[in-house]
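TICKET: design request
STATUS: open
ATTACHED STRUCTURE:
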């Protein structure tokens, strides 16, 4: 998968100002205009950029201009080669690399822009994940890991900032390959001194074997993922401390202990977080454990994703000053609910204080809100924050109950008890029913085995639709037929999309190496091993022993469809030739005639300058191709007498 890269010395960027002044608005590779800085890695800055060729947003990872030591051209080649290898790997749960290169700003890699933000961004915003949400994220990432581990690829740097989300909330693993190139044993010591990360940041998600400077493997990725998922649940990385050496020693000697937390999910994570890598499951087995734990968990609430930035028109000018607007469909309803509730409180206050001034107004406010019994307001438009505020202010116990109801949206308040205007004592309970969204509909159970079009029709009949379609080869399922449904939960909201795995049919075959002279039985065995049909074609052959292969068609190494038939040309032995009538011919004429039909001239019995009287074998005898025929010539005396 290696790509050719420049052999020139890595060009250092000349700073054009402080901060981002010299970067925003610049175009990399004549195509990617940098718009705004959206994050940073251990050794890189990450920007949202505008792809001038496809008119859409992308993410650009740029190696910091002052990171590399002068003259370190070998690293540039290694980094770009790693980016090229990452671009060759494709999977629904891996962030796709689109382009990479070297510019006057430094080395860069261009990948899909993930509108949902990162797991790190969620946690930085104060949002921990529920067990159900962590389980969904873990399943997505284990599927991506299973894919790369199957190709003998190790990620080596799994951390919350490398787990990104699509706008539908599906998790994808980013930074495949390039992080390892940056943190390889040859470069890490020199680069760490220039990294913005501290020493504890560098080892926070490392596996015990990485802490011992051992070569990581696929089980190391599993360990790092367990640490990330545990942090998303609890808000703390296991074994975290301010001392990197203590953190490393703790990982090497202690088992992950969730103290019975998170029920079955916690047990799955504990098992996968073993200090000895041989005791850990593979990514596939971890995924199976998560699936088993899903049976005990409720359906996850939607993740709190970052709001996507706007589509940026190509004006030819820097978009540095363009700030992403809040998504109106997410911001407006919440603002409307908060405004309505606060208007209600303001109206109550206005009525209470009407006609009262000074200390009297204060006493009237205190009498109203300080009384043991208060009127319950209409909470139809209140937000979660408003509900908590009114309950705390008036000393009520808030009982939130969630249910599904068709015709509603998630978060909508359905009803309340007591009803608005009812007096409720301090310490009383106010119950609010909140919608989880429309009723769930079951995914049809018979999708596997249907053609894609029929599966789409079945989904549409219950209000669902087909989502991402992943194609893969299958030896049993015909091309275009659904193999399985890529959805953990059996029921979804109407309008949801269901991901499907569809068959490409059996994988293509390579015609195996079968040399001339191979026995027919051995050739048939090799073709049967790869599942190819055979037609035997027998020919006479003067070079190959009877019953052995002369050649195969198509040639060995040719890729053919799984149901193809290979022709095996088999020798029937040497060709049979009939000895011609040579009498009356001169020796040279007889020799030429024998060679034309594939025979050779043997000994000459008699003079060489007289005519042929007979041959041995005689004329009309059937002999093998290549047989030598002796010539009997007329004696000289007999010729003279004649």
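STATUS: resolved
RESOLUTION: sequence designed for all positions
ATTACHED SEQUENCE:
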């Amino acid at each position: 998968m290696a790509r050719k890269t420049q052999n020139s010395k890595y060009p250092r960027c000349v700073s054009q100002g402080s901060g981002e002044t010299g970067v925003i608005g610049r175009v990399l590779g004549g195509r990617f205009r940098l718009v705004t800085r959206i994050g940073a890695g251990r050794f890189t800055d990450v920007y949202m950029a505008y792809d001038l060729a496809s008119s859409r947003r992308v993410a650009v990872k740029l190696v910091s201009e002052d990171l590399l030591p002068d003259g370190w051209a070998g690293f540039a080649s290694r980094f770009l080669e790693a980016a090229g290898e990452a671009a060759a790997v494709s999977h629904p749960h891996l962030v796709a690399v689109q382009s990479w290169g070297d510019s006057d700003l430094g080395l860069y890699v261009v990948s899909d822009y993930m509108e949902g933000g990162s797991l790190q961004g969620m946690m930085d915003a104060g949002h921990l994940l529920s067990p159900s949400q962590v389980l969904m994220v873990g399943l997505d990432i284990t599927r991506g890991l299973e894919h790369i581990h199957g190709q003998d690829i190790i990620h080596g740097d799994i951390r919350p900032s490398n787990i990104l989300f699509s706008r539908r909330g599906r998790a994808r693993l980013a930074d495949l390959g390039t992080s390892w190139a940056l943190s390889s044993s040859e470069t890490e010591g020199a680069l760490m001194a220039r990294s913005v990360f501290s020493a504890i940041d560098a080892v926070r998600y490392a596996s015990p074997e990485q802490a011992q400077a051992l070569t990581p493997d696929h089980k190391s990725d599993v360990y790092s993922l367990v640490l990330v998922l545990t942090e998303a649940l609890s808000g703390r990385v296991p074994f975290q401390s301010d001392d990197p050496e203590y953190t490393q020693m703790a990982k090497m000697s202690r088992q992950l202990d969730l103290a019975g937390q998170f029920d079955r999910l916690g047990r799955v994570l504990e098992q996968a977080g073993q200090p000895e890598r041989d005791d850990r499951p593979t990514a596939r087995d971890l995924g199976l454990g998560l699936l088993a734990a899903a049976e005990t968990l409720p359906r996850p609430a939607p993740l709190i994703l970052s709001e996507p930035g706007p589509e940026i028109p190509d004006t030819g000018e820097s978009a540095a000053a363009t700030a992403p607007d809040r998504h109106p469909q997410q911001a407006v309803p919440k603002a409307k609910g908060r405004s309505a509730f606060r208007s209600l409180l303001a109206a109550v206050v206005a009525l209470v204080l009407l006609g009262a001034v000074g200390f009297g107004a204060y006493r009237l406010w205190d009498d109203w809100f300080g009384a043991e019994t208060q009127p319950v307001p209409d909470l139809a438009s209140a937000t979660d924050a408003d509900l908590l505020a009114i309950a705390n202010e008036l000393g009520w116990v808030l009982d939130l109950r969630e249910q599904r109801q068709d015709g509603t949206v998630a978060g909508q308040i359905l009803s309340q008890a007591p009803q608005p205007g009812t007096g409720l004592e301090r310490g009383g309970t106010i119950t609010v029913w909140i919608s989880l969204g429309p009723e769930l509909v079951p995914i049809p159970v018979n999708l596997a085995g249907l053609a894609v079009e029929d599966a789409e029709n079945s989904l549409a009949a219950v209000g669902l639709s087909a989502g991402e379609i992943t194609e893969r080869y299958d030896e049993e399922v015909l091309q275009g037929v659904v193999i399985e449904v890529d959805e953990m939960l059996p029921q979804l909201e109407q309008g949801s999309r269901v991901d499907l795995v569809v068959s490409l049919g059996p994988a293509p075959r390579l015609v195996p190496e079968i040399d001339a002279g191979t026995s027919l039985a051995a050739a048939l065995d090799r073709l049967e091993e790869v599942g190819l049909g055979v037609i035997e074609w027998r020919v006479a052959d003067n070079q190959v022993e009877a019953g052995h292969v002369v050649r195969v068609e198509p040639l060995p190494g040719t890729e053919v469809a799984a149901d193809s038939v290979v022709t095996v040309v088999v020798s029937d032995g040497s060709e049979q030739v009939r000895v011609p009538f040579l009498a009356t011919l001169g020796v040279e004429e007889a020799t030429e005639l024998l060679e034309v039909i594939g025979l050779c001239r043997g000994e000459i019995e008699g003079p060489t300058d007289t005519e042929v009287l007979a041959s041995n074998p005689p004329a009309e005898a059937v002999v093998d191709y290549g047989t030598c025929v002796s010539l009997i010539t007329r004696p000289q005396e007999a010729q003279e007498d004649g």
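CLOSING REMARK: Residues 509-571 form a domain with the Trypsin Inhibitor V; Chain A fold (CATH 3.30.10.20). The CA atoms of residues 13 and 65 lie 5 Å apart.
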